[in-house]
């Protein structure tokens, strides 16, 4: 069992907070590669998201909400631990069959923090923090897990344990797996098994390859069942539901395929929206919606190089795998009836890393003492306290860029989309208040600001 050092001062601080310690239920819905504009309430012209739009009307919509990385594993590690991923050994993306790697179990997750104050916890969907047993959700604070352990475009893991009665599909069996691993490989992964990924329950594969055309609905089904069981047992609950899409390859069920004006990508988003609505409706039916914090966001920006199968980050520049705003500024909505003002918007900078310390403060849970927390308590922002400002003087985009106030400094610029790539003249400085698309370099006009940010970035990188 993991030994967790807890910060007693944090407990004392929580006990004297404006809001006395409560135990609201908590639901975090995290999408994969969803762009900033890919929701009705963020301006999508051709994707209909009535349920998420309703969530925004009933909660707070953030305009300047950031993830700590522009790629999957690192972003998820930061959300769950409240730490910059580089500080906890998760610099990029984990792949199956490429070494024994994952989020080291000594790092404390939101689930572990909440279990310390009596929460039931469940992870559903994409994990992507290591597929070996010690890295799986069941060893990171979650009571149970159901989902695909990494990106939906990857491969089976050679050391995967298969459950008795595992459903093999598309002619798969153990011999087919052995033959594939004996055949041509792509850095340790069998080429013939590309996009064929396992569906797991706890620590075993129960379906291979996972039927991804129904996976969004099945994730919601699993979340709904967990909510029902928790309410029946009288336990506060934490549901972390990480949809596997709109990361490619894209799949939609027959009820949604071909229905969106945005093509298959839109079909996927609209199916996610529908199933988000099912979860919201279930909370209401059980009478716990007013006692539940719901967070809806994305792990990074859209995969623009996928063309029509990628999303849209407008009015931001670029997308996934870059340190421009389109890579790490994401849509985010938080609802908590009676606490978070309905129909509100927040333009202060906030981060996924803020979730752990904020939820700890709300629930009276202790903060982990052994890890370098970068997240801050943002309850003043969530409650729209008069004069509330971001608690972050700086936010670092990996080791290449930093934002402070309206200013953003790039030590180096990396582009992924050929059509919009420009001749980089880094280092660069942008005023996001006037230039959200990062198109006008004003470093020569404000050398003192650029120097201050450059020094902060250098210190962060040490």
From TrEMBL:
One Pfam family from the record: Sulfatase
Cofactor names: Ca(2+)
Sulfatase N-terminal domain boundaries: 24-364
UniProt cross-references to Gene3D superfamilies, sorted A to Z: 3.30.1120.10, Alkaline Phosphatase, subunit A
Swiss-Prot/TrEMBL keywords: Calcium, Glycoprotein, Hydrolase, Metal-binding, Signal
Signal peptide start-end: 1-20
Gene Ontology molecular functions: arylsulfatase activity; metal ion binding
Family indicated by similarity: Belongs to the sulfatase family.
Record-linked PANTHER family: ARYLSULFATASE FAMILY MEMBER, ENDO-4-O-SULFATASE
Name of the protein described by the UniProt record: Arylsulfatase
Natural source organism: Pontiella desulfatans
Lineage: Bacteria, Pseudomonadati, Kiritimatiellota, Kiritimatiellia, Kiritimatiellales
């Amino acid at each position: 069992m993991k030994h967790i050092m807890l910060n007693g001062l944090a407990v004392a601080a929580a006990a004297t907070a404006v809001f006395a310690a409560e135990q609201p239920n908590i639901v975090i819905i995290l999408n994969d590669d969803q762009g900033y504009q890919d929701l009705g309430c963020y301006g999508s012209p051709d994707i209909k998201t009535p349920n998420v739009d309703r969530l925004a009307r009933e909660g707070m919509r953030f305009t300047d909400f950031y993830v700590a990385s522009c790629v999957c594993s690192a972003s998820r590690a930061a959300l769950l631990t409240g730490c910059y991923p580089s500080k906890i050994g998760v610099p990029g993306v984990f792949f199956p069959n490429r070494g024994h790697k994952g989020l080291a179990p000594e790092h404390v997750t939101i689930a572990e923090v909440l279990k310390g104050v009596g929460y039931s916890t469940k992870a559903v969907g994409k994990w992507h923090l290591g597929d070996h047993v010690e890295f799986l959700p069941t060893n990171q604070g979650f009571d149970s897990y159901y989902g695909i352990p990494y990106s939906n475009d990857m491969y089976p893991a050679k050391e995967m344990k298969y459950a008795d009665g595992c459903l093999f599909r598309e002619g798969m069996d153990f011999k087919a797996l052995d033959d594939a691993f004996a055949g041509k490989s792509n850095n340790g992964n069998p080429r013939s098994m590309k996009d064929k990924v396992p569906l797991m329950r706890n620590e075993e594969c129960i379906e291979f390859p996972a039927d991804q055309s129904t996976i969004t609905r099945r994730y919601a089904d699993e979340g709904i069942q967990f909510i029902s069981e928790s309410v029946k047992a009288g336990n506060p609950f934490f549901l972390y539901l990480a949809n596997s899409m709109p990361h490619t390859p894209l799949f939609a069920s027959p009820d949604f395929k071909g229905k969106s004006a945005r093509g298959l990508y839109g079909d996927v988003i609209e199916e996610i929206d529908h199933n988000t609505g099912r979860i919201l409706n279930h909370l209401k039916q059980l009478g716990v919606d007013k006692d539940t914090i719901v967070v809806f966001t994305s792990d990074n920006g859209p995969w623009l190089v996928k063309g029509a199968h990628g999303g849209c980050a407008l009015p931001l520049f670029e997308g996934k795998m870059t340190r421009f705003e389109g890579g790490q500024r994401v849509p985010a909505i938080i609802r908590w009836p009676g606490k978070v003002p309905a129909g509100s918007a927040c333009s202060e900078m906030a981060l996924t890393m803020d979730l752990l310390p904020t939820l700890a403060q709300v629930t009276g849970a202790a903060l982990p003492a052994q890890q370098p927390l970068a997240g801050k308590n943002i309850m003043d922002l969530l409650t729209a306290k008069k004069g509330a400002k971001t608690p972050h003087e700086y936010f670092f985009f990996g080791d290449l860029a930093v934002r402070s106030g309206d200013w953003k400094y790039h030590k180096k610029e990396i582009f992924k989309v050929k059509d919009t790539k420009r001749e980089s003249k880094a280092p660069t400085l942008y005023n996001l208040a006037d230039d959200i698309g990062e198109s006008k370099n004003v470093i020569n006009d404000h050398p003192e600001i650029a120097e201050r940010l450059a020094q902060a970035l250098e210190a962060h990188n040490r």
